[in-house]
Amino acid sequence: MSMNESAESLFPPLGNIEKVNGLDFHSLEMGMGASTAIFIHGASINLRDWVLANSPLTTSSYKSIYIDRPGFGYSRRDKTNWTAKKQAMQIRSFAQKNNIKKPVLVGHSWGSIVALEWASEYPDELLGVVSVSGVNMPYSKLVEWLALAGILEPAVEIYSSNIASIHFSSLIERFSQKVFTPQEIPKGYLQKVGVDLIRRDHTILANSEDLAQTAIALATLAEKYPRLTLPVEVIHGEEDVFVRASLHAYDFVTQLPNANLTILKGVGHMAHHADPYSVRSAIERILLI
Predict the structure, then answer these.
(1) 23-30 and 16-20: which strand pairing?
(2) DSSP assignment of 90-108, as one string?
(3) pLDDT (tens place) for every residue of the chain, 289 residues total
(4) Sign of torsion, CA 228 233 239 243?
């Protein structure tokens, strides 16, 4: 049995797989409500991360739909260039196919880029966006230039090689500890989110492609922020060492006409796990507008 087959036998799909634009698309629907929130996960991981983060919430006033971004979990991407915008349009096609109207998009980390791409292209189709620990603002011009020149590709290749290596378990454990700091990793987290799914060839490739395009995607996206008038809720951990609140939260909201900022004291990058109630409150504020 190959590594890909082994991972998928251990961690089968949680929800429904359907064809969207000819490609497998995996989603899980939970809860009830007239309105819908679509949850978009960050780098490497899959929809299980959001499902686990929201598990303490026994009730909500909206329906929750968790999706795997193309290339992750059980959603596929083909060999074309899957920009953040293209991923957003694939999620949009899924929503249209299933008659999901006016959802709230909730994106964690890299997933925030995808949510903002949809919002910037078709804002009238959404009630609002919730960015949780979002990668929202362009990095320095130097980093943007390096990405354009392809100089970041070796670093991405090193990352990919490590993920696929025999030292995977210890590497991912250490990385997860840093991501959650100063919080502890939830008990059983790596197994509950199907960590071996990260090691599949196509997921490593998808994540590498996403990381390599980040600076360029944000440079283009940020130009549209001043015209983004729909409600945007920004939730960020003050102690996030991966995606600094100073740039991606405080500076970000100054670019938006209609933003609300929630800073979580003593919280790191995994803010949706540290305080899922803040995410629910943000969604409900948008639904009341």
Answers:
(1) antiparallel
(2) HHHHHHHHTT--SPEEEEE
(3) 555 668 898 999 999 999 999 999 999 999 999 999 999 999 999 999 999 999 999 889 999 999 999 999 999 999 999 999 999 999 999 999 999 999 999 999 999 999 999 999 999 999 999 999 999 999 765 455 445 544 444 444 445 555 555 566 777 888 889 899 999 999 999 999 998 998 898 998 999 899 889 989 999 999 999 999 999 999 999 999 989 999 999 999 999 999 999 999 999 999 999 999 999 999 999 999 6
(4) negative
Tokens read off for 187: 């008990």
Three-state DSSP class for 147? helix
Contact status, residue 287 vs residue 104, Cβ threshold 8 Å: yes
Q: What is the CATH number of the domain that holds 28?
A: 3.40.50.1820
**Residue 73 φ/ψ, nearest 5 degrees:** 55, -120
DSSP β-bridge partners for residue 130? 106, 233
Collapsing DSSP to helix, strand or coil, 24 comes out as: strand
Residues 6+ apart with CB under 8 A from 259: 231, 232, 233, 234, 252, 253
Residue whose pair of structure tokens reads 């979990």 in the numeric block: 73
CA 189 vs. chain centroid, Å, equals 17
- Of all residues in the chain, what percent are helix, strand and coil, respectively (each to 5)? 50, 15, 35
User: What is the domain range of residue 195?
Assistant: 3-288
The reply to whether the predicted model has a pTM over 0.90 is yes
Count the domains in the chain: 1
Answer yes or no: are the C-beta atoms of 99 and 126 closer than 8 Å: no
- Best CA proximity match to 219, nearest among 124, 115, 113: 113
* Residue matched to tokens 């951990």: 237
- What CA–CA distance (Å, rounded) separates 143 from 149? 10
